[in-house]
Each structure stands twice: as structure tokens, then as C-alpha cells.
Amino acid sequence: MTQFSANLGFLWTDLALPDAIHAAKAAGFDAVECHWPYAVDPADVKTALDATGLRMLGINTDRGDVAGGDNGLSALPDRIHEARAAIDQAIAYAVQIGCGAVHVMAGFAAGSPAHDCFVANLKYAATQAAAHDITILIEPLNRYDAPGYFLTTTTQAIAIIDAVNAPNLGLMFDCYHVQLMEGDLTHRLASLLPKIGHIQFAGVPARGRPDEGEVAYRHVFRAIAEMGYTAPLGAEYKPGGDTDQTLGWMATLR
Questions:
Q1: Alpha-carbon Rg of the chain, whole angstroms?
Q2: Is residue 33 annotated as a catalytic residue, yes or no?
Q3: Which of 71, 108, 133, 203 is most buried, most CB within 10 Å of its CB?
């Protein structure tokens, strides 16, 4: 049976993070993940995780100055010190809550200097994370939602992963982003499976609940299970209202 992780960056955003963790447990999720938990005391998050028995699968590095247009820092050659501070912050927070992975956000950049900078920062992140048995993830984002983001395709991501050559660096395969940029989800999942560290999903093209839109997730989830992938799949969709009212897909797609 397919397991699901609730992405609390989109689900139950009306609740404080510890309360959202409890809501995810009550709704039947097998794990949780989130975006930027740093305003919340990690002790409070750990208490909620312990009480529910859920594990926090992943968090993101800080985006930087969001008001100034930042969406990550690690591919920005003139922001290396800030990028590594964000990496250190994420790893420290992950250690405190028992989180298994950190998504290192690249940011808005282009060209070979950005590539070289991202590779160098990922080598740093992988080295720092290895001591804590934490996986570093990178995620291609689609050009419609994040125009100008440095990392946009799985092909680019695999080239970066190969250049870093760290055993604890993997691909965050978000079916929503990959479908918009590349399509052919099940074949891509099968070919990239050895490099994949986490899988996420949402309806396409609206990024709503997964039982709406152009992707037949019943087929995709069955294919993933047949590939032998058993980790929880991350529900990172926009509910467009009360989260609990959108969860009918869990029974039909599990």
C-alpha cells in the first residue's frame, strides 16, 4: 500500500506547525515534510513528531531575502557565505528534529559560474550532512512557477549530482514540476530511480489535489510501487481551502 507524506508548506497552513503535524496524523498520513520551519522552536516540532510517531522527511534551506526576490542562494556566486550559512542552519534544525533530508535551493541564476557555485555548495552541504546521516536533495522547478530558477530539468539535476559525486546527494523528483517541463513521468521515474531521494506530487496544471488534472496518479503510484520504491510520497499540492475537505484522494489513490 502506498504511503503518503503531508507537505505542511501547503497543507494545514492555517495551523501552527506542531498542530499541523497532529492534523496530518489524524488524517492518516504516514509522514510529514515542510518548507521553512525556522520561525518555530525545533523543540516544539520534535515534541509533536514524537507524540504522533511521524517523521519529518525533509525541509528546505532558507530562500534568502524573499522581498528582494530571492528563491534560494546556493547557485549565486556572490552569495556563497549566505548560502553556506543557510545550509548550516538547515542541517542544525534537521538534526534537532530528526529530519532525514535537506533540500538545498539553488535560486535565480544562469550560466557556468552558477553551475560551478551550486556544485561547490552542494559538496559542502553533502560533507556537512554526512556526519548526521542526512541526505541532501536538489529539485528542478518548472519555468512557469519559478521563471529564472537555475535548476529546471532532471537532466540538468543528474549532471550536477554526478559532478558533486556524493553518496548522500539525491534528486527530489516532483511529478508536478517534471510533468510541466518534461512529461513521460513513469519512464523518467524508472530511469532515474537510483538517483531519487524523494518523490512529490500534485495535480497538473493547477497544482491542486492529485485526483484532478491531466496526470493519472493511480497509474503513476502503481508504477512507482512496482519499481520497488516504498518510501512515503510527498503530497505537495495547494488545497484551495480547508485541507481536510480535499483528502478524498488518499483512499482512492493509496
A1: 17
A2: no
A3: 203
